[in-house]
Design goal:
Length: 188
């Protein structure tokens, strides 16, 4: 249970109620982060538009890698909801359960390509507050991504940090999207 609850549905603007209706159709319920962001409806709409742009078909970063970056950041920030949701998306986008299980040890794992390792290393460094990026991380990143892709990656990292820190700060629990995450969480 989150520390603060969303408002009653009738208290939201009409367009947020439409979003909740669509969530109930898709997920069988309203998502708690959206109920909370919905208390700031214009902020929510802006954030949702930003994510749609970052996760669109025109992105220079492949969908599986985008999801892996999001899961890693979510784990660093201890956001159970984000780990759950992004793990589900990652598996749907082709991540194998073995690769998923090796995510925290990506630097030593042969399951990750050099491009993936560069992006995940960059995401880790940016996410850890107070960590200055060193030239080696940027050099490795530039071997695999052009400037536009690096900008997209930085924006995705910033977005996921905002989302996972918001959710973690409000104690939003996992919603049961990913069986692997649920089993992993129960076993730890």
């Amino acid at each position: 249970m989150s520390y603060i609850r969303g408002s009653e549905i009738f208290r939201y603007p009409w367009y947020m109620r439409v979003i909740f209706f669509l969530q109930r159709r898709r997920y069988g319920r309203e998502l708690e982060p959206v109920r909370l962001w919905g208390r700031l409806p214009l902020a929510y709409l802006s954030m949702a538009a930003m994510y749609r742009t970052l996760d669109g078909k025109t992105s220079r970063i492949n969908p599986e890698l985008r999801s892996l970056v999001q899961v890693l950041i979510s784990r660093i920030n201890c956001c159970d909801f984000c780990i759950d949701l992004n793990s589900s998306a990652s598996l749907e986008r082709g991540t194998t359960p073995e690769k998923f299980a090796s995510l925290l040890a990506f630097e030593q794992s042969p399951l990750f390509s050099e491009q993936e390792k560069a992006a995940l290393c960059y995401a880790t460094a940016v996410t850890h507050t107070g960590c200055k990026l060193d030239a080696k991380i940027i050099s490795h990143l530039r071997q695999h991504f052009d400037d536009q892709a690096i900008i997209e990656l930085a924006a995705l990292i910033a977005y996921q940090n905002m989302a996972s820190k918001f959710n973690a700060a409000l104690g939003i629990p996992a919603h049961g999207f990913c069986d692997i995450y649920t089993r992993e969480n129960l076993n730890s």
